[in-house]
Amino acid sequence: MKHGEVLENFNILKEMIKFDGTTSEVQAADLDWLIIRGDLLREIFEGLRAYLGRGANIAIKAPGKTSGKRFFASLLNRNMELKEIVIVLNLLINEGGWGKSEITVDYEGKKATVTLQNCITARKTRSTEPSCTFLTGYFEGFFEKLFNKETQCIETACIAKGDAVCEFQITPKNMA
Ligand SMILES: [Zn+2]
After folding, report:
1. Would you say residue 3 has pLDDT above 60?
2. pTM here?
3. Long-range contact list for 14-22, CB < 8 A, 24+ apart?
């Protein structure tokens, strides 16, 4: 699932993202989008952690999960195959500035692994624990819809704590 191949074979991103000059909205997959600075995103998460303490993780993960589910649903509405939807997700992570991603999916076993180099929510930060809570929720929601089964996502490596990549493992919820 290399970037160049995806663009050649699908060319979806170019087709999907549209700017409407009359409403000043960027639309992709029938959702509105916004370009914001990476450091602003990180500051929002840091602020939530500073004010809410441990509760911040719930406050950050929940909208991530909703967002992942919504994105999946919006692509399914375009009559795309599951494998195409995963390719589009990979493309948008890469092209959207979230980091350089690789996604491996075991459709039978309903498991997936996402690795992100230079992840937007962890780059330029330091933490003793995996800190990409929004993305953890996002992938949990996305793959829950993809597999049509309750899933859990755990961030097993994070560049914020010195790992080479951020790694997210998605498994059925009843598995340890
Ligand atoms: Zn991370």
Report:
1. no
2. 0.88
3. 16/88
